[in-house]
Amino acid sequence: MKHLRLWQLALLVVIFVLWHVATKPGLIPPFVFENDQQAAFFFGEPLKIFGRIVDWFFANADIYQHLWVTLLETVLAFGIGTALGLAFGLWLALSPLAAAIADPYIKAANSMPRVILAPIFAVWFGLGVASKVALGVTLVFFIVFFNVYQGVKEVSPVVLANARMLGASQRQLLRHVYLPSATSWVFSSLHTSVGLAFVGAVVGEYLGSSRGVGYLILQAEGAFDINTVMAGILVLTVFALLLDAAVGRIERRLMKWQPKSGETEKL
Amino acid sequence: MPAPDPTTALSLANVSCTFVSKDDPGQRYTAVRDVNLTVGAGEFVSVVGPTGCGKSTLLNVAAGLLAPSTGSVTVFGEPLAGINRRAGYMFQAESLMPWRTARANVMAGLEFRGALDAAAQADEWLKRVGLGGFGDRYPHQLSGGMRKRVSLAQTLVLDPDIILMDEPFSALDIQTRQLMENEVLALWAEKKKAVLFITHDLDEAIAMSDRVVCLSAGPGSHPIGEFAIDLARPRDVAEVRSAPRFVELHEAIWGVLREEVLKGYRQQLAA
């Protein structure tokens, strides 16, 4: 569809207009709440929210340090979690004994609601960046780990036998067969894990911090400033979309060997 | 036991393979039993037999991918331990690395060995199998026949002394197949390597080989007949089929094989 973006944008505008009409005090008679201030109190007003965002980015320009902290936490959590997941996934997938021993612990650690670890990490690593990174890592690690594990287990036995017949050593098998095969699985999980790294950072900030977008939201919530809370959520959403798009770009570049359907062109 | 002979490229002596089910060790299946098979240096030997008779098992044993339960494998007089380094293996199923381009796939073996001119050699081989302009394509962008040619180049670029082929063309249509068969014969005639060729297609076996070995139906299959193919070379696999000697040989081998094929079929129906 040619005008897809246009339609998507139109839908966004419609949503904001409806939001505006439904919440602006005095614009339409209240139909859910008792007086016309309450809708704005509970749901915020789009115009004020945008004003808030403009203040953050241009007028006061004070959000950058918070965004930077959140971004740093996300990227660190993502990088460390992915590296650890990759290393452990490869190790356990290639060593059945280690996998058999670790199996119940991996399952237990994965099924534990890891967000509750945030207070512990705050005690261990303080209220700075490190505790948020630790939380993000525990979220990212398992996603990547399970995908790598699966990816190595599902390497085509014929491709593997072929590489061995071509003379690949154990190291070369790892580098040229297991790793590329696992990366396709890792990439399918990267979108999820980038999102989770972000969740880890924001939730960590929300539970106790002195900087970051999560901290801004927490402050505003304490003051019942719903417009600032909504503004923070919008900024986080746009941010998450940008991160996701970045992963998508990297994925397209690295995974060009994967078959895609519909490569013909209508002339 | 005969003394090791360096003119024998590959020799399987009293090889048996019994598979044990991992979940239930009581479940065993003997795929091949007491197989003696030799391939001379420069000889083209085909193994034919009913489906599921353990032909691929034999090839995996020869490649060193599978250790036999009993018996021994010798390669140019040396007992085989681990992967058979002097053999190239062309698989029945898709074996190219999907994340490598055609060129990178052909280069793979050379790269593993640390050859410096890998790219140049790979390009030369791609040209020889008629894929000169396709080096940058990924396997999924190639047709089935082209992928088989890349596999062929990938195997032959390493210049192995023994070539193992497991029904390499069974997935191809008849025209492409005959083209590929002729190409393989031409390449083989040039280099005179030892070839162990597995197929279920008797026509293909006779048209290409110096010798055809028939296997009995499984379980516990073993050679039940051996035929020297004395058709003149060079051969064209399509034309040779109408030669009177070809028809004679076909009749003789089919006489041996027929009962086994039917037996194998009945077993599969009963299972």
Describe this structure as you would to a colleague.
The complex is a heterodimer of chains A (267) and B (271). Chain A has helices spanning 4-23, 38-43, 46-59, 64-94, 96-111, 118-125, 129-153, 157-165, 170-207, 213-222, 226-254. Chain A is an all-alpha fold. The longest helix of chain A is centred in the last third of the chain and has 38 residues, at 170-207. Chain B has one domain: P-loop containing nucleotide triphosphate hydrolases (Rossmann fold). In chain B, strands 6-7-8-3-9-10 form a six-stranded mixed β-sheet, sandwiched between helices. Chain B has a four-stranded antiparallel β-sheet with strand order 2-1-4-5, covered by helices on one side. In chain B, helix 2 packs across helix 3 (118-128) and helix 6 packs antiparallel against helix 7. Chain A binds chain B through residues 156, 158-159, 161-169, 172, 176-177, 180-181, 183-184, 256-259, and chain B through 63, 65, 83-85, 87-89, 91, 93-101, 108-109, 111-113, 138-140, 154, 158.
Say what oligomer this is.
heterodimer
Mean pLDDT reading of chain A: 86
Portion in beta strands of chain A: under 5%
Q: Could you name the CATH homologous superfamily of the largest domain in chain A? A: MetI-like
Order of helices and strands of chain A: HHHHHHHHHHH
As a whole number of angstroms, the C-alpha radius of gyration of chain A is: 24 Å
CATH topology of the largest domain in chain A: MetI-like fold
Cα separation of the termini of chain B: 38 Å
Helix content of chain A: over 70%
Low-confidence stretches of chain A: none
| Biggest interface and residues each | A-B, 23 and 28 residues
Distance between the termini of chain A: 16 Å
The CATH architecture name of chain B reads 3-Layer(aba) Sandwich
In CATH, the homologous superfamily of chain B goes by the name P-loop containing nucleotide triphosphate hydrolases
CATH class of chain B: Alpha Beta
**Could you list the spans of chain B in which at least 5 consecutive residues all have pLDDT below 50?**
none
**How are the strands of the biggest sheet of chain B laid out side by side?**
6-7-8-3-9-10
Number of E strands of chain A: 0
